[in-house]
């Protein structure tokens, strides 16, 4: 099979990352912002806490009054009132005095520490403190959690439930986020039929359309399936002409270089530019990356496993860029191989694996299947990347597994 000049996976990612994109921003309510990507740095408009507050139930006092205090030689302090949560502390603590205080309540003027209830014995007119308390003990000071004017969340961060708690503490009810990218998805090939069609000899039901759209949904994008397109130059060019309606278009099938390769012809006919055709990877070598009307277009292999691996390794980085996402963490684990993995120098290979845990160690078993087999993804827990400069891995070698 003839290909245009194949490039290294590193070069392919470099080209993908270098593509400039236009971001669109929208405001959403704090209730609707989980898993969205922040479009701006979030600045603290207030100190948190905005007043000195107690971290425990106990008594606010002056630390020097407890010097040397212990169980057999307690310090005696007179008590004067109580401060509850939500109340303004109006009393003033002087030497030899203490004020009862609740967790989260405001520290009264004059006090510089709080003794926990557990280290206090109550008397008729005061308390006996049975341990030495240090200045600042059990107090959260103004701005100790969050300082006014500081950046609390950075642009490009995926918003978590904990981030939402922080934003609510700062009074943010509406949050600037990047709009979710709208992705057009096409399945191509004369052999592809719809999921509800009767399976006939030589035909296969569409797998990639459903796999791709659901991978996109999982990553926070909005996919639109544009249908199954036959191997026809005019038909494919016609549907690609709608690329301006989307932030990116993905076409599975038609990326192989051969007599019936209409994808590159369609892109070029519409004035697009092929940035690369072919990556030194296995599976997924005949991958196309192009621009059309300033929008990224991927031509993905038709074989389901090849298509899925290219999605994970190359389409996702482009998608994350479109989303404005700066945190691009892939969940991974390390484990020991249960068998050898042979590979060829010059080709980066992706091997699906099963993972089993025993005695605190993960054992990694390769699943050697053809690129047209989709069932291996159901059995697999993740995949190993064999770098192009390695001739594989040996049994018992520690490897890193990217989890699905």
Task: Give a concise summary.
The chain is an alpha/beta fold and 404 residues long. It has seven helices and 28 strands.
Draw up the topology in text.
Blueprint lengths: L8 H10 L6 E5 L12 E2 L9 E2 L3 E4 L13 E9 L13 E5 L11 E4 L3 E3 L3 E4 L9 E2 L10 E3 L7 H9 L4 E5 L3 E7 L3 E2 L10 E2 L2 H11 L3 E8 L3 H8 L7 E5 L10 H7 L3 E5 L3 E2 L5 E5 L2 E6 L3 H20 L8 E6 L3 E2 L5 E11 L2 E6 L8 H5 L2 E5 L5 E2 L4 E6 L1
Parallel strand pairs: 5-6, 13-16, 13-17, 14-15, 17-21, 19-24, 22-25
Antiparallel strand pairs: 1-12, 2-11, 3-10, 4-6, 4-7, 5-9, 8-9, 18-20, 20-21, 22-28, 23-27, 24-25, 24-26, 26-28
Helix pairs in contact: 1-6, 3-6, 4-5
3D structure, described in words:
- The protein folds into 4 domains: 9-24 and 179-323, Molybdenum Cofactor Biosythetic Enzyme, Chain A (3-Layer(aba) Sandwich); 25-45 and 151-178, Alpha-Beta Complex (Molybdopterin biosynthesis moea protein, domain 2); 53-140, Molybdopterin biosynthesis moeA protein, domain 3 (Beta Complex), CATH 2.170.190; 332-403, Beta Barrel (Beta-clip), CATH 2.40.340.
- It contains 7 helices and 28 strands.
- It has helices spanning 9-18, 161-169, 208-218, 233-240, 263-269, 304-323, 375-379; strands spanning 25-29, 42-43, 53-54, 58-61, 75-83, 97-101, 113-116, 120-122, 126-129, 139-140, 151-153, 174-178, 182-188, 192-193, 204-205, 222-229, 248-252, 273-277, 281-282, 288-292, 295-300, 332-337, 341-342, 348-358, 361-366, 382-386, 392-393, 398-403.
- The chain has a 6-stranded mixed β-sheet, with no helix packed on it.
- Helix 3 (208-218) runs parallel beside helix 6 (304-323) and helix 4 (233-240) crosses helix 5 (263-269).
């Amino acid at each position: 099979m003839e290909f245009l000049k194949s490039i290294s996976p590193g070069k392919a990612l470099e080209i993908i990352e270098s593509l400039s994109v236009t971001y669109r921003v929208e405001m959403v309510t704090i209730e609707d912002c989980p898993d969205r990507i922040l479009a701006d740095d979030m600045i603290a408009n207030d100190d948190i806490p905005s007043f000195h507050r107690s971290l425990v139930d106990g008594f606010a006092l002056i630390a020097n009054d407890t010097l040397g205090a212990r169980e057999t030689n307690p310090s005696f302090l007179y008590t004067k009132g109580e401060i509850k949560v939500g109340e303004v502390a109006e009393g003033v603590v002087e030497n030899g005095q203490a004020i009862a205080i609740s967790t989260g309540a405001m520290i009264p003027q004059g006090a510089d520490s709080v003794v926990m209830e557990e280290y206090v014995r109550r008397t008729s007119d005061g308390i006996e403190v049975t341990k030495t308390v240090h200045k600042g003990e059990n107090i959260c000071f103004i701005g100790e959690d969050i300082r006014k004017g500081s950046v609390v969340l950075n642009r490009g961060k995926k918003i978590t439930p904990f981030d939402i708690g922080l934003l609510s503490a700062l009074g943010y009810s509406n949050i600037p986020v990047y709009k979710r990218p709208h992705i057009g998805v096409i399945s191509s090939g004369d052999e592809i039929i719809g999921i509800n069609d009767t399976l006939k000899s030589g035909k296969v039901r569409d797998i990639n359309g459903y796999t791709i759209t659901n991978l996109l949904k999982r990553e926070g994008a909005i996919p639109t399936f544009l249908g199954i397109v036959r191997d026809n130059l005019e038909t494919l060019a016609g549907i690609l002409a709608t690329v301006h309606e989307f932030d990116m278009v993905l076409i599975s099938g038609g990326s192989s270089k051969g007599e019936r390769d209409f994808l590159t012809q369609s892109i070029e006919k519409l004035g697009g530019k092929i940035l690369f055709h072919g990556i030194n990877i296995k599976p997924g070598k005949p991958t196309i990356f192009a621009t059309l009307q300033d929008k990224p277009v991927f031509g993905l292999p038709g074989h389901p496993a090849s298509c899925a691996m290219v999605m994970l390794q190359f389409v996702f980085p482009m998608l994350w860029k479109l989303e404005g996402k700066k945190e691009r963490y892939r969940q991974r684990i390390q484990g020991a191989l249960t068998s050898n993995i042979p590979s060829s120098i010059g080709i980066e290979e992706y091997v699906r694996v099963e993972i089993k845990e025993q005695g605190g160690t993960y054992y990694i078993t390769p699943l050697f299947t053809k690129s047209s087999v989709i069932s291996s993804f159901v059995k697999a827990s993740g995949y190993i990347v064999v770098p192009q400069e390695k001739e594989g891995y040996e049994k018992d070698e520690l490897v890193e597994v990217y989890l699905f």
